[in-house]
Automatic annotation (TrEMBL):
Pfam families: adh_short. InterPro entries: KR_dom, NAD(P)-bd_dom_sf, Sc_DH/Rdtase_CS, SDR_fam. It comes from Corynebacterium callunae DSM 20147. This is Short chain dehydrogenase. One of its GO terms (cellular component) is membrane.
Length: 241
């Protein structure tokens, strides 16, 4: 791709790009965006960079965004058309079993980092009249005992998205929440292993479907915005016999 072609493309920023959902999101957005893919796994980032239009950025996003004032390679972006917050942490903890450190770890990565990175990129998002997408969870509504810290962080993320949408409405920035149910990712595999539950990938949502949901949101016409999308398994786990 030539430099002029790259400049003509829309620009996307995706956090958590080396996770199961993030990988598929980057692949899909790269079809019509120049994608800045942020993640920790250098090996996966290098593979992503083999895709035309993907710029891999190895980042400890907690430190870069909260301690160092931002991701250096993003600081010069003049416009951002699509920002996808896919980085997250999930551990099984009840109120009784949790520590202050565990609360902080979940709230910092799942809520404060997306809020702060959004703030840093707001000028570029406003210039593009861009789209901000928060990857939430089925845990973002309702009660999920035994998974309280993660659930609380996702409730907070929903509040962040809904309030930000109102704040940015006047300048044309769109804000959406995508809430997947159980999706075939390493995160879910880890949660189920900790619970002693048998992992059955055929029962869970394919991560490609989350990328498809994001594509639906990104391609919405200019007169509208898709505010909330729930992505559920075709047969809910509780309904299986």
């Amino acid at each position: 791709m030539s430099e002029n072609q790259e400049k003509a493309k829309k620009v996307a920023v995706v956090t958590g790009a080396t996770g199961g959902m993030g990988l598929e999101i980057v692949k899909d957005l790269a079809t019509d965006h120049l994608v800045f893919a942020l993640g920790r796994n250098l090996e996966i980032l290098q593979k992503l960079e083999d895709i035309s239009g993907v710029v891999g950025i190895q980042s400890d996003i907690l430190s870069d965004v909260l301690d160092r004032g931002g991701v250096e390679k993003l600081s010069k972006l003049e416009r951002v058309d699509t920002l996808v917050h896919a980085a997250a942490v999930a551990r099984n903890h009840s109120v009784e079993s949790s520590s202050v450190e565990q609360w902080r770890a979940h709230l910092e990565l799942n809520v404060i980092v997306p809020a702060e990175l959004t703030r840093q990129l707001l000028p570029a998002l406003r210039k593009a009249q861009g789209q901000i997408i928060f990857i939430n969870s089925g845990a973002g509504t309702g009660a999920h005992p035994g998974n309280t810290i993660y659930t609380a962080s996702k409730h907070a993320l929903r509040g962040l998205a809904d309030s930000l949408r109102k704040e940015e409405a006047g300048v044309g920035v769109r804000v959406s929440t995508i809430s997947p149910g159980p999706t075939d990712t390493e995160m879910l595999r880890g949660l189920m292993a900790a619970q002693g539950t048998v992992y059955q990938p055929e029962l869970y949502i394919d991560a490609k479907e989350i990328a498809s949901a994001i594509r639906f949101v990104v391609d919405a016409g200019s007169s509208t915005q898709i505010t909330n999308v729930d992505v559920r398994p075709r047969i809910e786990l509780g309904d299986r016999k």
